[in-house]
Amino acid sequence: MTAQTLVMPGQVLSKDGLPVPHKSSVPLKLGPGLRHTPPSTITTTLAGPLCIDRKKNAIWVENNSGRYIPQTNDVIIATVHHSSTDWYHCSITPHTTFAQLPQLAFEGATKKTRPQLASGGLIYARVVAASKHLDPEIACYNPSTGKSEGLGELKGGMVFDISLGMARRLLLNKQREEGKLVILEDIAEQVAFEIAVGRNGKVWIKANGVKETLLVGKALQTTDEDVLNVDEQKKLAKKLLRQV
After folding, report:
1. What is the pLDDT of residues 125-146, one digit of tens each?
2. Which of 57, 56, 31 is nearest to 165 (CA)?
3. What is the arithmetic mean of pLDDT over 181-193?
4. Which residues have C-beta within 8 Å of that of residue 92, sequence separation ≥ 6?
5. Nearest Cα to 125, choosing from 56, 198, 68, 192?
6. Is 10 left (phi over 0), alpha (psi -120 to 50) or beta?
7. By CB atoms within 10 Å of each CB, which of 17, 46, 69, 95 scores lowest?
């Protein structure tokens, strides 16, 4: 569970308000909306609820605005805009500079085996470097393990826009308990689909057909836009599944 307090940009967080980890070896994880100034000053950069997850020793500012700010370790859905000799230049949102994706930043990639991504292609990637002074860098594998871990080119399917808050909820390990989301679980009882969620407010969905893909996308967007609770999500799922 997370605790929440409303903050405004420029606030310096007091040490008393920071989560205390169960183990001293667990580092504090800063999410979107926070900036660390050495040695120990943490300042808010966004307005919204300050969320604290004491179990994970994590803290962030929840913000549903359309402007996504890349943060290291975020998973995102990006569109390939163009390529150069060693890089793919990818669009994350209309408001950010192109993210730089090394052409060898894929599992097992060599100059001969690297993916050939065309302009307009979709990728699921992780932000490995983010700074206000430099273009963000992304990768489609985990540099520590060399494995893709679900990242890479997204083939087929459709991309839907969701709020940044909904994206965060969908990326929680326990959607039902922590995010109060049951819509996908209920839809999945009758419709098989693949899904990739980007922290940048994008979700990629691929079902057996266009009709099913649109149904899943509509279910998510309606839940997001109408701020549906658990019971309302269940009613929506039943209504949509009658169309299958």
Report:
1. 999 998 878 899 999 999 888 8
2. 31
3. 96
4. 68, 70, 76, 78, 99, 136, 200
5. 198
6. left
7. 95
